[in-house]
Amino acid sequence: MESEPGSLSFSYDFLALAAFPALELTLGLLSILLLLACSALVSGSEVAFFSLTHNDFVQLEQDGTPSSRRILSLKDRPRKLLATILISNNFINIAIVLLSDFVLRLLLSDQLFSEWGRSLAGFFGRLGIDIAPLQLAVASRWTITVLGVTFLLVLFGEVAPKVYAKLNNISLARIMAGPLLVLMRVFAPLSNVLVRWTNLIEKRLTGRTEGGTLASKEDIDEAIELTVSAQAEAEHEVDILKRIVKFGEVSVKQIMRSRVDVVAVDHRISYPELLEVVRDSGYSRIPVFENDFDNVTGILYVKDLLGHLNEGPGFEWQDLIRTNVLYVPEAKKIDDLLREFQVKHLHMAIVVDEYGGSAGIVTLEDIMEEVIGDIKDEFDDEAEVEYKQLDANNFLFEGKTLLNDVCKVLDLETGIFDAVRGDADSLAGLLLELHGQIPKKDTTITYGPFVLKVVSVSKRRIQQILLTLHRS
Q: Exposed, middle or buried, 306 (CB in 10 Å: 0-12/13-18/19+)?
């Protein structure tokens, strides 16, 4: 009878000891699931925050909610935000690896791995490879841990949350804005060091490359193609972004209106003649010259005539001429000219060649069109570039058409003619460079995929050119 209580006590002790591994295993598995959820949220927040567009930020500013304000606060510190996300994710992943190893020890005993080690050692021994069973046992445990954790992290901690974040970036950003602000304060010392080192490395790398650029224009164009999403206006957005990248490389000579196409008036003409020119041209600013266009003395603003429409033929309109004329060289870059227009509050400049003569004019509208494309108003009845597309590969151009405009029409890189263009700016000038003299009608010249045929020509200039493009 005395042995029964002792047996009962032994049973209770055994159950208590068995309960501890089960409890530890349960807590370990729950902890891994919790950390996987945290890893998913942190990884997804990286895509969520850095995929927000300008329109998204405008919407958040209009919302004015606390979560919106937190997102906008993080937007102003992108590098620190990224550093915080990376640091947090690394700590979480390390914790998952350690817990996974702990859980694996509970599920699979050391004795089991020792047996595997001895079996593997015997296998390798038969192959003539001598490896200690203990090393193979440790390697087996580590391999199972790494493969299992890698699968969990890649699927549930990286791929799935980032796909979700791409589709629901604003909602996930709202959820994670608060926690990330807290983590940013917690990891501030580490993130500050990381950001400083990143800036230092970036400066060193930038300093070692010519012009301070880390990527070529081709790389940037490809990045733009990959970044802009496939929306209805995506093609137009891609075109604008590429033009912005190349904006600083375009010279005034490439976008100016040549002197033969400029509407200008002699300062000696009568008032009725001036009004007729204004009505026929439809322009708001007209250059005024003395004797010839090489001596531009001022700009007439048509709006200044509004108060004098009832004046007689003898009205001295010359008093309205504004003499603050801006002269710019042909080689000036249009980004510099844009800043000059802004500072001097001007919209038109006279382009001068290397000999001091007037080569043409350039306007603020010409510069803007280099970024956003052709700007049409109620007076623009005809296309800015005069050409006729005969079929998919044949185009009839005016000889005076600028090479820059030809490339736009054909959707080609603007530098495709650089190797042979010399000083030529127009299609006729390119043909002269290739032929060496004014060609006769029906003369055909081939350059690369282009076939240029002279359709009409005068004694002084090439008037029309048929361009055939053989696309590969």
A: exposed
Whether 453 is covered by a domain: the verdict is yes
Sheet holding 285-290, edge to edge: 265-266, 285-290, 292-301
Which helix or strand (DSSP H or E) is residue 203 part of? helix 188-207
Cα torsion 52, 57, 63, 65 to 10°: value is: 70
Gap between the Cα atoms of 127 and 130, Å rounded: 9
Single out the residue in 315, 340, 372 at which a domain terminates. 372
In this structure, the number of other CB atoms found within 10 A of the CB of residue 155 comes to 13
| Three-state SS sequence of 413-426 | CCCCCHHHHCCCCE
Residues 6+ apart with CB under 8 A from 304: 320
Percent of the chain residues past pLDDT 90, beyond the cut: 10
175, 166, 178: which is closest to 37 by C-alpha? 175
Domain co-membership, 318 together with 182:
no
Q: Measuring CA to CA, how many Å separate 432 from each of 280, 405, 447, 462, 464?
A: 33, 18, 13, 9, 13
Residue 379 lies inside a defined structural domain of this protein: no
At residue 113, the pLDDT reads 65
Structure confidence by residue, pLDDT tens digits, 207-245:
544 444 445 556 655 665 655 555 555 666 666 666 676
User: Bridge partners of 298?
Assistant: 288
pLDDT tier at 68, thresholds 50, 70, 90: confident
The overall pTM is greater than 0.70? no
Q: Please report whether residue 142 resides in a domain.
A: yes
Tens-digit pLDDT profile for residues 411-464: 787 778 877 877 777 888 888 888 888 888 888 988 888 889 999 888 778 889
Domain that holds residue 354: 251-372
Looking at the structure, do residues 347 and 328 belong to the same domain, yes or no? yes
Contact 180, 81 (CB under 8 A): yes
Instruction: Report the SS3 class of residue 341.
Output: helix
Domain count for the chain: 4
